[in-house]
Amino acid sequence: MFKRFRGTKLFLTKDDELIHSGKPWKKRSKSGVFLTSCGRVVSIDQESRATAHVGYKIVSAKRATCRECNKREGKAVMDRVSHGRRVDRLF
Questions:
Q1: How high is the pLDDT of residue 91?
Q2: Can you tell me the distance from the alpha carbon of 58 to that of 34, in angstroms, rounded to the nearest whole number?
Q3: pTM of the model
Q4: Span 5-61, pLDDT tens digits
Q5: Which of 11, 12, 39, 53 could bridge 61 with an S-S bond, Cβ 3.0-4.6 Å?
Q6: Is 18 exposed, middle or buried (0-12, 13-18, 19+ CB in 10 A)?
Q7: Which stretches of 1-91 are assigned E, i.e. beta strand?
Q8: In terms of Cα–Cα distance, which of 53, 48, 60 is closest to 5?
Q9: 48 within 8 A of 54, measured Cβ to Cβ
Q10: Residue 46 and residue 52: Cα distance in Å, rounded?
Q11: How far apart are CA 27 and CA 54, in angstroms?
């Protein structure tokens, strides 16, 4: 599973909840566990010992709808820009 999704941003949701962005969580040996941008560890399995947030599924979406995921993704982009380039070169 990790080989299939390595390096890609995934979007995960459960039932009619908000869509979270995330990536595979490699701290556990079990596949199917993901860390969302808002810090939630979720599993696509119905039962998991790694987390209580189970039953999520990977969905095709253009962006996350979870407010915290969007905030943290935006902050990461702004941090990369501010550390990578001087502000006066952007304009």
A1: 40
A2: 10
A3: 0.69
A4: 555 678 999 988 999 999 888 765 678 899 999 999 999 988 888 888 999 999 988
A5: 11
A6: middle
A7: 10-13, 20-24, 33-36, 41-43, 57-59
A8: 60
A9: yes
A10: 10
A11: 17
